[in-house]
Amino acid sequence: MSIDTTPSIKRLDTTVVNRIAAGEIIHRPANALKELIENSLDAGSTQIQVVAKEGGLKLLQIQDNGHGIKKDDLGIVCERFTTSKLKKFEDLSKIVTYGFRGEALASISHVAHVTISTKTKDSKCAYKAMYADGKLTPPRPGQTADPKPCAGNDGTQITAEDLFYNIPTRRKALRSPSEEYNRVLDIVSRYAIHNSGVSFSCKKQGSMKAEVQTTSGASVIDNIRQIHGSSVSSELIYGERTFDSLDFKMQCYISNANYSVKRTTLLLFINNRSVDSMGIKRMIENVYSSLLPKGGHPFVYLSIEIKPENVDVNVHPTKQEVHFLNEEWTINSIQEVFKELLENANSSRTFYTQS
Ligand code: ADP
Ligand code: MG
Question: In what residue span(s) does the DNA mismatch repair protein S5 domain sit (predicted)?
Fold first, then answer.
């Protein structure tokens, strides 16, 4: 008689499956914050305030003045694939708002303790609810999980506490709160610059001073000055271009030849989402390599609006790195605009010093 040593296959518990899936999307506080900021912007907010404790690992809180969430929706808002932004499959490629997966809040609730307080304009009071693993959960054992009426302004406050409390390995890998806080600040800064017209702030819990603070009347360039300083903002060239053939529009502020620093800053937005593109990064390094002293790098803010069908965001679950459908054509077109802007700036500078 031989003993069967082949391991048998077992189905993982759904809570574990959801937690693993959530961990693919949410790697650190800054990923969670990005999703939360995009939700606040989708809700039409003009004021977004972020508070973090221990770099967002202990607490990450975002308060907005957007349209709020209806009380009746609070029961399902943290479930997977629940969204107010997508009704049928075809919408998926057309949708212009930032988040379109209905997965962000669900994911966060699988890896943190989530509390939502929200008030719509029509409601007399705000409602507060707590979530764990996608579902409403009682604040204390023995209490009901139903949303509770409370005082509050129009808009939504979302708090995520003890990130990765249930994934100790992930939690241990993120040891430095100050490094995480820098990433949080980086995300807030990017969205603050891109969304002139919306005031942003970000500070540590209990602190009087915000590390990032913009006002709603400020322009993109005001926000760049506010966050990156006037040594950058005074050396920027503005450009915009529409390419009708591919329904593609770009706007940029790029530094001129006077500005040179150790590392490239690239603030890239595609359809109003902060993303990375290796192709664009490489093109920028290339364009500036002949212009700046050896080891010198530029500052580039670039916002692209493009038919969603022409950009592939599904390279990675976090949707951070994107590819273009016509990658070469698209990046070459942007490169031509950059070169033109830099050449014009250069010749007017020469002209100025000669006169
Ligand atoms: P998605 O943004 O893809 O719809 P999310 O999980 O990020 O999915 O959010 C689920 C839903 O919760 C949204 O569709 C929206 O209706 C609501 N929601 C989330 N955050 C906010 C907010 N700050 N203000 C108003 N509604 C919100
Ligand atoms: Mg979203």
Answer: 224-343
